[in-house]
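How a chain folds remains the central question behind the approach discussed here. For one protein, we set the task of working out the C-alpha cells from the amino acid sequence alone. The sequence in question and its C-alpha cells are set out directly beneath this paragraph.

_____
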Amino acid sequence: MSPDALSELSMTEAADAFARGDVTAAALVEAVFHRIEKHEAKVNAVIRLDRDEARTAALAADKARAGGTKLGPLAGVPMMHKDMYYRAGKVSTCGSKIRRDFVPDLTATVLKRLDAAGAIDCGTLNMAEFAQNPTGHNSHFGDCMNPWNAAHCTGGSSSGSGAIVGARIVTAALGSDTGGSIRLPATMCGVTGIKPTQTRVPRTGVMPLSFSADNVGPLTRTARDAARFMGVVAGACPADPTSAKEPVADYEAALTGDIRGLRVAVVMPHFFDGIAEPVYAAFDTAMEVLKSLGATVEKVQPESIFAINTYTAVVSRVEGATIHQQWMRERPDDYAVHLSARIYGGNAIPGTAYLEALSRRGPLLRRFCDEALGRFDVVITPTIKVRVPTRAETSIEASPENWDRFMDLSANTRPFNYLGLPTVSVPIGLDDVGLPIGMQIAGRPFAEARVLKVADAYQRETDWHRRNPLP
C-alpha cells in the first residue's frame, strides 16, 4: 500500500492489519513521515518529531511479530501526542515560552500504558499555551490551522491533536479536556474525541490546569478507535490517588451497533441558544439517523443547567490562577494576552465563591442526572453552536472585541467538565462552506461504554468520520 493509502486506515484498522501481518510497523511509521512532509505546512501541528526513535521502535515491533511474540492491542500503530504529556528526558513545552526547555524526570502513566500496548510514539504536538484556549491560537509556536481550511480555527486546546488526526497524518493522539479541549478540536477538525468520566484516566505526569476539571483522553478517527484506546489507558494508577478504582469495562465489546430502545434526551434551550442554521440542520438529521436505528428522542429542559454554567467558570478560573500564580508574578510578559486576561480574572474570584462552586458540584450532578438522565440513557447536544470561526475573528491579540466569540465556543462543552460526565464528540456533517459540524453524547458517570456504543452505531450508518480534507 502507498503511504497515502495507509493513512486512510483508522487506528484499529492499522493495529489489526499489523497483527495479521498485512502491513509492517515500519511502513506505517514512514507513512506518517510522508504525510508530515506533505501536509505539515498546512496545519502547523508538530512541535517535536522523533524520527529515529520511532523507526527503531517500528523495526523492533516488526521483529517481535515475526518472532511470534504476543503483542499488545495497539502494536505497530504510530501516534503523536499533545505536548503536555511528560516523557522523562524529553522536552515538554506545554505550548508555552516559559516551558520551552522544560525536561521532566518522569513519564506520564498514559504514555507508559500506550508503550506497553505497542503504540509507537513519533513526537509531540502543538497546543494552546498551557492548554488554555478554545481556538488553537498560539503566539509562541504559531497557530494550528484547520486541515479543512487553514484560515479557520482547529479548536483548542488540543489543537495539534485535532489537526493531525483530521489531516490523516496519525490515527490517534492524546488530548486533554478541562472545558472542551478534546471535543472542540474533534468537532472543528472532523474527528472523534472522548472526554472520559472525571478520574477515569490517571493524570500522573500530565501538565495540570484545573485540579477539579482536567481529563485525559484521545482524539481518533472513529468511536471504535476511541474504545480501544480507552481500554488501554483507563484504570486506577497508584501514583495518582485521584484516579478512580471503578473496574474498566470492555469498551470495544460494547460496540454492537444495536441501539434499539435507547432513550435520548436533547437538552433545551441552553445548548441551542443562538445556534447556526447549518448546525441545527445537521443535528436534526443526526437525530433522525438515531431514530431510524430504533432510538427515541425527546427534548428536556433541566433547570440545573443554569447553576451549572455559573459554577463551571468559577472552578477552572480559580484553580488555573492558583497553578500559575508564581509565574504570573515573576514572568507576566511571557504569557499571551488572552491567557493573562483569563488568569488574572481568577485571582479576583472570592474564596467563598470557589468553595461554593465545589460544594454544589455533587448536588448539581445528582440533580442533572435526575432531570436529564433519569428517564434517559444519554444526553445529546451540538458540540458547538456556530460554524467553525476563522482564526482572525477569534484572535484576542488582534482585537479585545473578539472575546465573546472566543469564549462562546466552549459554552456547550464546559458543563460536562463541571459535572464530570463522560462525553464523546463525533462529526455529523459539513456546513455551507465545507467545515465540520459535531454532536456530543454524554452519559452517567463511568458510562463510557454506552456513549461510545451510540457514537459507533451512528458511524456505522454515516460516513462523515471517513471524510478526508487532505488526500
About this structure: Residues 82 and 162 are 10 Å apart (CA to CA). The chain has one domain: 3-466. The mean pLDDT is 97. The domain at 3-466 is CATH 3.90.1300.10 (Amidase signature (AS) enzymes).
